[in-house]
Amino acid sequence: MKIKVLIVDDSALIRSVMKEIIGSQPDMEVVGVAPDPLVARELIKQTNPDVLTLDVEMPKMDGLDFLEKLMRLRPMPVVMVSSLTERGSEITMRALELGAVDFVTKPKISIQTGMREYTELIADKIRAAAKARISARSVPTAERAAGALPAIRNPLTSSEKLIIIGASTGGTEAIREFLMQMPSDCPGILIAQHMPEGFTSSFARRLDSLCKISVREAAGDERILPGHAYIAPGHSHLLLGRSGANYVTRIEQTDPVNRHRPSVDVLFRSAALSAGKNAVGVILTGMGKDGAAGMLDMKNAGSYNFAQDEASCVVFGMPREAIALGATHEVGPLHALPGMVLNYLATHGSRALRV
């Protein structure tokens, strides 16, 4: 059975391009196109689509307003189509908070080279969205900001241990929920989230405004400090390195791995090499298998690893692959993972540091 897709965009050109791209996939069909949310609302009733692609900025009704109403009244998988601008990235981050599964940037119509890769990207995201678990939105962000877990009360743990996180589809919200529970003295955190260039800086700023810890886009060659999280920039791989006795961030623009840059495998493998048993790995919701092999390398190097469980994942792809490889030690629901990680650090941290 084909995936039924409804396209909503105020640009006739973008609607045409998206229709051609989606219609070219043998497992998809475009069941309607709409220039604004008001038309889309009627088409949703008529066509009952499996996935909606939604422009973030449209006339008659703002894309965010429409998304908020949609997720409250008729929750369904939504892939946002965003302009590659600062405003577009900030709106997209808000859309993901409201319940959108994922997003793509608008195609560069004038550039035909790379169009095949763009087509594959959109198709992959729609397939992932069609399999996604869509649920009612949880407690509003503002009400959860004070929900950080207690301090670790073990200075050795927070200064020497590291938390290494990888995620993809659904990961922006999973990472937000995880980081918002981190106390101000938690170990340094490195994060690889599949996200294009221009969006990771907005993502980091948003998290920094919500969390007790400091969150920033990694710039490279920074000393990794307790109470700080470093997010891989959308244009580069993030790696863990060492400079003398200190852990530092490294940024590399080498080829994509598993079709991704940043890649979770690249980050995890660098953690295996540079930190070994001082690293704790966490793999969250995401499509595909990026991170599974790297997490196994971490386990073999002595790290202790956690995976998000199927019931709480938007897409149970990456965690499933890591579990299948035997790369994880514990599996738990998203809301419990921060406590599980901190409990492990509190009870094993000092012993693990005796090298």
From TrEMBL:
Protein modification: Phosphorylated by CheA. Phosphorylation of the N-terminal regulatory domain activates the methylesterase activity.
Keyword Hydrolase: yes
MF GO annotations: phosphorelay response regulator activity; protein-glutamate methylesterase activity; protein-glutamine glutaminase activity
Domain CheB-type methylesterase: 155-348
Subcellular location: Cytoplasm
EC number: 3.1.1.61, 3.5.1.44
Protein name listed in UniProt: Protein-glutamate methylesterase/protein-glutamine glutaminase
Species the sequence originates in: Massilia polaris
Lineage, uppermost ranks: Bacteria, Pseudomonadati, Pseudomonadota, Betaproteobacteria, Burkholderiales
